[in-house]
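To make this tangible, we now present a fold written out as tokens:
***
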Amino acid sequence: MQTTLLTKENILLQQDSTSWQEAIKKAAQPLLKNGSVTKQYVEAMVQSVLDAGPYIVLMPGFALAHARSEDGVCRLGLSAMTLNTPISFGSPNDPVKVIFCLAAIDPTSHLELMGELAEVLARDNIIDRLANVQTPEAFIKLLEETRS
């Protein structure tokens, strides 16, 4: 996994959210804080689910929040968040316990990252294992070990 993108500062663990909208906004906070995205982009991620449904819930327990680059991406970025209590997006793959937020600057710059992420997510029980780590460092280590 491109650890230059997913740093310990971009990982939030055991968070509480009362709605999927709040969960997306909270998961995006590290990207907002480090200047990868604007507030408009965070709102666009929520709006895209309102408009198109819970397509971001890619597999049981996992959502990949994103929007169009022109909605406020300043640079390529990735954040991750685990939830204390899994949340419903209205998807057959609910409830979600791990959310990644992707900020892609163009249609291709993130493709290598997406390939790596797909490889990791294909592993058995990875979502449960990620949801239960106790430190951001352990989260990154698990992603790297799973990819090896």
In short: The two ends are 10 Å apart (CA to CA).
